[in-house]
Amino acid sequence: MNPLERYEPLVDDVAAFRAACDRPLPSVVRVNEMAASPAHVREAFDDEGVAYEPVDWHDGLFRLPDGNPGGNWPYVHGWTHGQEEVSVLPGLALDPQPGERVWDACAAPGSKTTQIADAMDDEGTVVANDNNLGRLSALRHNAERLGITNAIVTNQDARNFSTKPLAFDEFDRALVDAPCSCEGTCRKNPDVVDQWTLEHVHAVAGIQKGILARAVQATRPGGTVVYSTCTFAPEENEAVLDHVLEAEDCEIVDFDLPLDTAPGVTEWEGETYDESVTRAHRVYPHHNDTGGFFCAKLRVGGTGNTGVGA
Amino acid sequence: MTDDAPTNDGQQFDRLPETPADREVEGRASRREVLDWWDERFGIGPSVFEEYSFWEKGAGKVWIFNGEATDPSEVEAIGMTFLRTRQEHWKPTSRAATRFGGLATTNVIELDPEQAVTFMAGDDQDLPEWDGDWGYLIATHEIAGGEAPIGVGLYLYDELRSVVPKGSRADLPTVE
Ligand SMILES: C[S@@+](CC[C@H](N)C(=O)[O-])C[C@H]1O[C@@H](n2cnc3c(N)ncnc32)[C@H](O)[C@@H]1O
Q1: Which of A154, A205, A231, B122 is the 20 to 30 Å CA partner of B144?
Q2: pLDDT by residue (tens digit) across A151-207?
Q3: For A131, which residue in chain B has the nearest alpha carbon?
Q4: Element (H, E) at A262
Q5: How many domains, chain A?
């Protein structure tokens, strides 16, 4: 069975959804604004004759119709990073500020870590963790190429992450960009559809719950936790949120994203979820011609202040 | 063996001592020496690095960090690699050169478009016209209306050796 079929009841326009899933995605780069402005990168692309198109909802993203995001001078200078459009959304939702303590629980290969460091203007501390050492070496390479100096890299299972190696024991913000069944990346990597199994969905949902719960625990009262995946499966999205709402002291908050999204769903295959999961955003490929994505923003309970921009 | 002097532990990151007088681990560079070196070699003054801390892991590799950390730190990485010490001629990393090299005022070699392409491909080239110091230089080229650093070269006997690490070498177009 093609797993995309199971999500047809959730989408508004099935034909458009399926057609979009079959189209390849263009290469996209994000500007590393601590090194160069979008205008500067445009000028460098113009001089070099690199074709690019703006992305209307984010001025630091460029689509490169000829591909090869690493084969140009701005990349060599660490001014750009190849990153799918939807992949910048959790960083926008997290909204990290210079000087803060931020945890990127599932960080490799570092697209979002480097975006977070950039938003922090390379000030404060971002702890980039992943349980896969090989993928962490890709993260380190990316962070160095982009000139990031405020990251600490750790190699732990995020479900029982220990803050012992750190100089503090609470974060202001945490991002859980969870391992998932990834159907949302089918436009880049069609194999994910063939390898999909329901057993894997259930297994990975258990891991997601463990990591998100730990992220809530490790974040200070009033702090922000963002949960994101590139799957459409409610088992890995709304069900994970619903579980953590019950188990930990936190709430899902409203937030805006700069593109068209659908709300989280409250019912799926006989299960029902807390009403507040509708505050999460589902991004379908046919709405903005992107990959598929899911993103929710949580506020950790208690009386701490929410901080700038949360 | 409790009264042995502390030695360099390759498994953890240790903060550099403030000055040579504070040094406990043999051979470890001090913060003062690192700052002096950047100032003397490239004209990048200590104030640029005021907010940063410096760490050693492994023999001589110095990392630069702009966050909060314990000393020592048992983690995979802290900030970015910055400088290779514990050798006669200290060597800045290519990434340190791209990150901070734009502020350099001495020992900067401006490459023309073709030379820049050769450099990034990892190839050595004859550059007899350079009449500055030998040793490690910051290489720059012109892009988008300004000079910008692309890495570190080793200048010896009329030749600029590219020391761009393998994983960062690239085939790039010549931009006139
Ligand atoms: C979606 S990817 C992260 C992508 C990354 N945030 C980025 O933007 O480049 C999920 C990551 O979770 C990691 N992972 C899986 N299980 C984990 C666990 N229990 N603890 C920590 N990381 C885990 C995987 O190794 C993988 O790198």
Answers
A1: B122
A2: 999 999 999 999 999 999 999 999 999 999 988 888 888 888 888 999 999 999 999
A3: B76
A4: strand A262-263
A5: 2
Catalytic residue among A106, A180, A230, A250: A230
Question: Which run of H or of E encompasses A154?
Answer: strand A151-154
Which of A37, A43, A130, A152 to mutate against chain B (most B CBs within 10 Å)? Answer: A152
- How far the first Cα of chain A sits from its last, in Å, is 41
Q: Which atom of ligand 1 is nearest to the CA of A158?
A: 20
Q: Pairing relation of β-strands B61-65 and B14-15?
A: unpaired
Residues B130 and B148 in one domain: yes
Instruction: State which of B92, B114, B141 marks the end of a domain.
Output: B92
Exposure string (b/e) for B74-86, b if CB count within 10 Å is 16 or more?
A: ebbbbbbbbbbbb
Give the minimum alpha-carbon distance from B70 to chain A in angstroms, rounded to a whole number.
5
Report the phi/psi class of residue A7: left, alpha or beta, with left for phi > 0 and alpha for psi in -120 to 50. alpha
For strand A101-104 and strand A125-129, is the pairing parallel, antiparallel, or unpaired? parallel
CA distance B113 to A202: 55
Measured from the CB, is residue A135 less than 6 Å from ligand 1? yes
Residue A306 confidence class, pLDDT cut points 50, 70, 90: low
CATH number of domain containing B113:
2.30.130.60
A162 in the same domain as A267: yes
CB-CB contact of A211 with A284 (8 Å): no
Largest distance between two CA atoms of chain A: 57
CATH code where residue A68 lies: 3.30.70.1170
Q: How far is the CA of A214 from the centre of ligand 1 (A)?
A: 14
A230 is catalytic: yes
3-state DSSP call for residue A182?
A: coil
Residue that is written with structure tokens 């936190």 in the block = A250
| B172/A43 Cβ within 8 A | no
A162 in contact with B, Cβ within 8 Å: no
CA of A157 to the centre of ligand 1 (A): 10
Token pair in block for residue A119: 């938003």
Residue A16 reports pLDDT greater than 90: yes
Contact A72 B69 (CB under 8 A): no
How far CA B77 is from CA of A98, A148, A151, B55, B150, in Å, comes to 20, 12, 8, 10, 23
Return the percentage of chain A with pLDDT > 70, whole number.
97
Q: What ipTM was assigned to the predicted interfaces of this complex?
A: 0.94
The domain of A36 spans 26-83
